[in-house]
Amino acid sequence: MSGFDTLAGARSSTTEAALRATAAEFVRREVTPHLQDWEDAGQVPRELHLAAAKQGLLGVSFPESVGGEGGDLLDSVAVTESMLEAGASSGLLAALFTGGIALPHLAANGSPDLVDRFVRPTLAGEKIGSLAITEPGGGSDVAGITTKAVRDGDHYVVDGAKTFITSGIRADFVTAAVRTGRPGHAGVSLLVIEKGTPGFAVEAPLAKMGWHCSDTASLGFTGCRVPVGNLVGEENTGFFQIAEQFVVERIALAVHGYGIAARSLALAAAYAKERETFGRPLADRQVIRHKLVEMHRQVEVARTYTRHVAARHVAGENVVAEACLAKQTAVDTAEHVCHEAVQVFGGAGYLRGTEVERHYRDARILGIGGGANEVLTDLAARLLGYTS
C-alpha cells in the first residue's frame, strides 16, 4: 500500500487494506475521468451516490441497524485518505458524503420512521440529504439560530433562512436547526424538511472560490408546514445533538486537510523529479528538496495527530478540544503545502483545472467550515482551562 499507511496500531488487518483498495479503485474508475466536468457543472451526478453505495462506501461508519456497513470513524478516515490519494478532491468528498453530516443525528436520535424514510435510502444512494444550520447572520453561532418552528397542531410552521448549505441544490431533504423554544442553546431543535414542501424555497447555486463540484445553496422557509413526526429526538435538544456530532465533522475536515496536502506533496515531488530547468531536474536544487521535506513534515504531524484523536474518540474519550486542535493543525498544513505545491509547479500550477490548483482553492474553506479557526481556538482555550 502506497502513500497512507495503516492507522496507528488500530487497523493492520487485510480488512482495512481491502477497504482502502476498494475506495481507491472507485475513484480511479468513477471519479477522476469526470471530475473536471463536474467541477465545471457545479455538482456531481446523483448516479455517483448509487455507485458509491453499491461499493459499501456511503455507509461505512454507520451501524448496520440503520442500513450502514457497521464500521466506525477510523474506517471513514481510511476511506477518505485512500480516495484523496487516488485523485479525488475535498469538494468531491463533501458532495458525495454529505450524508455524513445530514444523517448522524437521525441515526442516533431519530424515530424508526425517520430512519426508514431518510437514513436507509440515503445510505443506499437513493436520496441525498443536507444539514442546514448556518444562517445569513449567524455564522458559527449555533445557539443564536433564529429560524422559527412554531407548533400548530400536528405540524410545525417554519419561517427563516439558511445559507452555505452543502448539497442544498440536490438534496431531497434537509436536517434543519430551528428554534422551538426560548433564546439560547436550550431552545434549538432539529427538524427534517423535505424538498417540495410548500413554503420551502431553494435559491440558485452559490458560486464559490473552491469546492466547485459541491453544490451550495441558500434556503428559505415561509410558512412551511412540517409534520411533528419529522422532529429528531426530543424538542429543544437540537443544540446538544449538533454539538455531539461536531467532533466527527471536525476530524473529517482535518482528514480532508492533510489528505489534499499529502496528495499535493506527491504531485509536487513527482513533478520536481521530471521538470528540468537550466539542464537539471528541480529536485536537484537544494531549495526545492528542503521545501518538499518541510511539506512532508507538516503532513506527517497533521496525519499522526488527527489519527490519534480519531482513535481516542472511537474509544469513547472526550476529545472536543483535541478535535479543534487537529482541525487547526490540518488546516495550517493544507494551506501551506498546497501553496508550496503550486509554487513548485510554477506557471503550470496556476492553470485552471490542474490538480494542485484545485487543491489550493479547496483548502481555503477548511478553516471556515465546521467552525472557523478563531471560534475553535477560543473554544479550545475554554476547554483547556486557559481562560480566567
From TrEMBL:
Keyword Translocase in annotation: no
InterPro entries assigned: Acyl-CoA_dehydrogenase, Acyl-CoA_DH_CS, Acyl-CoA_Oxase/DH_mid-dom, Acyl-CoA_Oxase/DH_mid-dom_sf, AcylCo_DH-like_C, AcylCo_DH/oxidase_C, AcylCoA_DH/ox_N, AcylCoA_DH/ox_N_sf
Matches recorded under SUPFAM superfamilies: Acyl-CoA dehydrogenase C-terminal domain-like, Acyl-CoA dehydrogenase NM domain-like
Domain Acyl-CoA oxidase/dehydrogenase middle intervals: 131-223
Pfam family, one: Acyl-CoA_dh_M
Protein keywords: FAD, Flavoprotein, Oxidoreductase
An example Gene Ontology biological process: fatty acid beta-oxidation using acyl-CoA dehydrogenase
Cofactor(s) this protein cannot do without: FAD
Acyl-CoA dehydrogenase/oxidase C-terminal domain segment(s): 236-382
MF annotations from Gene Ontology: acyl-CoA dehydrogenase activity; flavin adenine dinucleotide binding
One GO CC term on file: cytoplasm
Domain Acyl-CoA dehydrogenase/oxidase N-terminal stretches: 15-126
Record-stated family: Belongs to the acyl-CoA dehydrogenase family.
Record's protein name: Acyl-CoA dehydrogenase
